[in-house]
Amino acid sequence: MTSGMQIKGRRPRLEYQNSVEAVWRRVVSTNSDDIIQQIDTTATLIANIYGAADSEETSGSTLCRYSKERPLELLLGIPSGRGLSGPAKLPKPRPFLIDLSQKEDLLPVCDWSDSFLKQAAEIVGDQARLSAQEIQRIGGSLVECMGLLLAWPRLQAHLGFNNLTYIQELLLKIVLGPRIAHLWSYRTRTGRRLNTEAHRVMCLLPWSDSSELLLARNASAGLLWNSPQVIGSSQWLDDVVSRLSTPVLAVDDTELLFARLVQPDSELTIVLDDNGEAVFDLAWIIQLFTTFPRLRIHVLVNPMPLSMNLSKATLGHAINSFPALMPIKWYINRKRLQVSYVRQYAPALEYGWLPPSLRRRIDSSGVVYLKGASLFENFAELHLFRFHVFAAYGYSTTRLTGLTEGEPVAMGLKIGEVGYGVNDTGVVTALDIVSSRL
Asked: Do the Cβ atoms of 243 and 224 come closer than 8 Å?
């Protein structure tokens, strides 16, 4: 997990009285039974000071009505203070994701959340020219509420990584109010810069019409954009070009995918991931249209700039600015490519939170291309052929796949086939699944 964005020339990091971990330890040490009330009180205070929105999100999300009176309902989709059995809107985490009942999992989450939320406050402060005191007040409010949430046992059982990022983004929405526009504007500018550098890298790579090589580049590109502050330097450029010239897939199920795409009038649903790597995905989409003349593709993108994910603004900038991606507009005009914008506060889209009509369309397409390690876990319940493309990254994904850090994967899962699991002897990894086919 990375803290993400950095701002060149920004003032030294501000000192805060509290951290997420300090709030969590304070609450846990008191053995308090009224954590729910503390969360409710703190969230209400935040909403009243900064102003939550009063509109209802309806376009493809399960977000509840924004309300100053029910901040917990805003955060978790549940009524406040009613003897709750658990958050109604959060899907249960998949196996081996963050287990917040275990301190060894929870404390790194506290540290990462602390850095992420305070950094967001400082970005907004710099963009809105706020005083240091105001920045600290915003950051402190974020930290206080996040620490309380993580100390709530009924929430811990529901927090995998994607659910955690979902709550963080909603918390930013409450605390920042209209000032969220400053954060989203910064993320959009950063995303455009990442895509510009990715296009430059792509143009420097040896040309190839090999779908397998292009797919390996797509998967490997996912790990190259985690430090925006160094992107664009000559050393970074040399390293990236070297790594992407001839990568080799650790799992290569390309033939399984192509066997389905060759069917007449087939449709492929694609869920994209981050800026930067998305440039390589879009180039591969163009290659697919060339290889399969009757193929139709349906792409899902979150319109909001959450974390470093591709958004409506950065996608539009990429296909209108980069010569290598200009054909995308032609395919859209010819109705072979359709883009659906799905509004969710979870940075990695959740299949279970998609509108029913969109889920039905995905199910009928028969083939889904899922980019990113998070989607390897988030779309596990999807009952159709799933083609996962990602690079193994972090403890959870390396454990589930059996791969070492950085190895690229293009793994096809047939209907009813799982990507990972557990039995009496331990984890059944993605490599075990692939080996069992032989």
From this structure: yes
Quote the CA–CA distance of 438 and 433 in Å, as a whole number: 10
Beta bridge partners of 369: 270, 387
Q: Does some domain include residue 107? A: yes
Q: Are strands 251-252 and 408-413 parallel, antiparallel or unpaired?
A: parallel
Query: DSSP string spanning 15-74?
Result: P-S--HHHHHHHHHHTT-S-HHHHHHHHHHHHIIIII---S---SS-------SS-HHHH
Strands 267-271 and 296-301: parallel
Hey, what are 254's tokens?
Answer: 């390309």
Whether residue 121 contacts residue 139, with contact meaning beta carbons closer than 8 Å, is answered with yes
Tokens 């081996």: give the residue: 96
The amino acid occupying position 158 is H
Whether residue 204 sits in one domain with residue 119: no
**Tokens representing residue 286 in the block:** 């163009």
Residues 6+ apart with CB under 8 A from 305: 184, 187, 188, 191, 311, 313, 314
pLDDT at position 339: 96
The residue out of 127, 150, 183 marking a domain boundary is 183
- Which has the closest alpha carbon to 121: 110, 137, 109, 106? 137
Residues with Cβ < 8 Å from 414, sequence gap 6 or more? 256, 385
Evaluate whether 412 touches 386 at the Cβ level (below 8 Å): yes
Q: Which amino acid is at 347?
A: P
Rounded CA-CA distance 96/399 in Å is 8
Query: For residue 69, what are the contacts with CB-CB under 8 A and spacing of at least 6?
Result: 44
pLDDT digits (tens, 9 = 90+) for 385-408: 999 999 988 777 788 888 898 899
What pTM does this model have? 0.84
Residue 204: pLDDT over 60? yes
* pLDDT tens, residue by residue, 127-179: 999 898 889 888 988 898 888 888 876 666 666 677 788 888 888 887 787 88
Residue with tokens 């799933």: 386
Which domain range does residue 38 map to? 20-183
Partners of residue 370 on adjacent β-strands: 271, 388
In a domain, 4, yes or no: no
**Residues 282 and 371: beta-carbon distance below 8 Å:** no
